[in-house]
Amino acid sequence: MMKVYFVGAGPGDPDLITVKGKSVLERADIVVYAGSLINGRLLESCKEGCEFHDSAALNLDEVTAVYAAAKGTGKTVVRLHSGEPSIYGAIKEQIDWLVANGIEYAIVPGVSSFAAAAAALSAELTLPGISQTVVITRMAGRTPVPQGQEIHALAEHKPTMCIFLSVQMIDSLVGELKQGYPNDTPVAVVEKASWPDERVIKGTLADITSKVGEAGITKTAMIIVGGVLAGEYERSKLYDPAFSHEYRVSEG
């Protein structure tokens, strides 16, 4: 039976696709891929004769038309999304179409760019005493943000914030962040996390706008904000010698 797999390609480094994702990609008969975002080296693992469609120039109807044409053929179709498909991947509308048309599907998760950016920064996003909450969000653009989820509203809680799709609006973004965070809050911008030409810009809310402007970064960048990027923190209870749990008795 023909089946569509939504596969997370990872943030850029082709080694960051999952083993399962690579296995599905290798046996795919048809691949619809986000050509403007994924590493083309991933497509080199596809079998000979595989049919490719670059979704960068396609609308939803044109993508689903590829699925429709494969229906009843018994072929394996991979929809290769950048990063992790569940985050800004627009997969729900595709899944709804597949369900309505009686086509089987499965999702193979991927490594998100926020995780790759954290790795580039050698950062732990959840440090005791600083932040136990990670917010994944974006600035409002052509896609509006629901009331109460604006950056300035989220910033009031001072979580670790991972901000997608917003570096081109860095000036407005910083203005909203300053409504909740102090000016000396650390900020990092990671352009093309895990790619060979990855760049990291570090600063604070006071100077990150000028630094990003000087670097000329306007897209494909993850912005991470919060005290976890600097400052003192409390040690984790997980490995505290004085802390007992199911698998270890405390030394105290």
Give short descriptive properties of this protein.
252 residues, alpha/beta, 5-stranded parallel β-sheet, 5-stranded mixed β-sheet, 7 helices, 23% helix
Assembly level: single chain
Secondary-structure element sequence?
A: EHEEHEHEHEHEHEEHE
Class by alpha and beta content: alpha/beta
Compute the separation of the termini in Å: 60 Å
Shape call: globular
Strand order of the largest sheet: 3-2-4-1-5
**Secondary structure tally, helices:** 7
What's the total count of β strands? 10
Major beta sheet, specifics?
A: 5 strands, parallel
Regions with little confidence, pLDDT below 50 for 5+ residues = none
Residue share in helices? 10-25%
Global mean pLDDT? 95
Rounded to an integer in angstroms, the radius of gyration calculated over CA atoms is: 21 Å
β-sheet strand percentage: 15-25%
Task: Please explain how this structure is put together.
A hairpin with a 7-residue loop joins strand 8 and strand 9. The strands form two sheets. Strands 3-2-4-1-5 form a five-stranded parallel β-sheet, sandwiched between helices. It is of the alpha/beta class and 252 residues long. The protein is built from seven helices and ten strands. The relative contact order is 0.15.
Spell out the blueprint of helices and strands.
Elements lengths: L2 E6 L10 H8 L3 E4 L17 E4 L5 H11 L5 E6 L10 H9 L3 E5 L4 H8 L13 E5 L12 H5 L4 E5 L5 H8 L8 E6 L7 E6 L3 H8 L5 E5 L27
Parallel strand pairs: 1-4, 1-5, 2-3, 2-4, 6-7
Antiparallel strand pairs: 7-10, 8-9, 8-10
